Amino acid sequence: MAYNLLEGKRGIIFGALDPNSIAWKTAERVHEEGGRFVLTNAPIAMRMGQIDALAKITGSEIIPADATKIEDLEHLVSQAVSILGGPLDFVLHSIGMSVNVRKGKHYTEQNYDWTHKGWDVSALSFHKTMQVLYKQDAMNEWGSIVALSYMAAQRVFPDYNDMADNKAYLESIARSFGYFFGRDKKVRVNTISQSPTPTTAGQGVKGFDGFMAYADKMSPLGNATALDCANYTISLFSDLTKRVTLQNLYNDGGFSNMGVSDAVMDYFVNDKA
Ligand SMILES: NC(=O)c1ccc[n+]([C@@H]2O[C@H](COP(=O)([O-])OP(=O)(O)OC[C@H]3O[C@@H](n4cnc5c(N)ncnc54)[C@H](O)[C@@H]3O)[C@@H](O)[C@H]2O)c1
């Protein structure tokens, strides 16, 4: 169901790789709500992914950009403003990658070049994106910037590896840059902390299926899907949430406030452990 919440709004959506991507679902929902946008992803993802199909469905242009490269981001932002016909109202940062996770390097055995690369892609890219938007004065007043995070920023999930640290850094950037964006440009900046979701990035985490099943059993409302995340993001891009900023917002079926659930207790009481 569409509510026309984003009629007349323009933006950039990072990170749609394939139809499972949270950014893909978000792009579809933004389109349904009347928003127009430019799609972007790393040049290598253009070759592996299916972004062309999404561009077709949503009538969007694609501008490749490696989100760790300032020149790419400068080009992306200025082009997006020119293609869409004015400054932007929303930006979704939906980017994550850890080389240590990908190559199975344990948290206690990190290769620091890989750690640095994963941090640059997953966390610092958010600062770089906002700095470029800020310097180019590319956001409209009452615009909204959202990045996606995960609970491992607050709690220990051993196999999430260095991505836990990257997410903690990402959430901190949202607060720190969000202050300046709010004060100077009336733009809000938030992170959404999403349930485990079966995407390419998600499934790269060791033991992901167990991770997902456990979270689902712990959450009174069950895991939030990619579509749930897209819908929450739409609300944050809309004018209905104008003074929500500097927040890390949980979209996780209640998981983050749980101690234990009946379903998980049953597992131990019945001696299945
Ligand atoms: N899937 C989950 O369980 C889950 C849970 C919480 C948060 N998140 C977060 O959601 C976001 C989106 O991930 P997803 O789960 O949809 O997976 P995904 O694999 O579909 O998306 C990750 C995207 O990051 C892009 N990317 C990687 N390096 C890049 C670079 N240098 N420049 C630009 N883009 C780059 C990839 O091409 C890909 O499109 C990530 O921040 C992820 O950490 C995911």
Key terms for this structure?
globular, binds nicotinamide-adenine-dinucleotide, 273 residues, alpha/beta, seven-stranded parallel β-sheet, Rossmann fold
Summarize the structure.
This protein has helices spanning 22-32, 43-48, 51-58, 70-84, 99-102, 112-135, 163-185, 200-203, 208-218, 226-237, 262-269, and strands at residues 10-14, 36-40, 61-62, 88-93, 139-149, 188-194, 248-251. The protein has 273 residues and is of the alpha/beta class.
What do you see in this structure?
With 273 residues, the protein is of the alpha/beta class. The protein has a single domain (10-269), classed as Rossmann fold, CATH 3.40.50.720. Helices cover 46% and strands 15% of the residues. The protein contains eleven helices and seven strands. The chain has helices at residues 22-32, 43-48, 51-58, 70-84, 99-102, 112-135, 163-185, 200-203, 208-218, 226-237, 262-269; strands at residues 10-14, 36-40, 61-62, 88-93, 139-149, 188-194, 248-251. The chain has a seven-stranded parallel sheet with strand order 3-2-1-4-5-6-7, with helices on both faces. It is globular. The model has no long low-confidence stretch (mean pLDDT 96). Nicotinamide-adenine-dinucleotide (NAD) binds next to helix 1, strand 5 and helix 8.
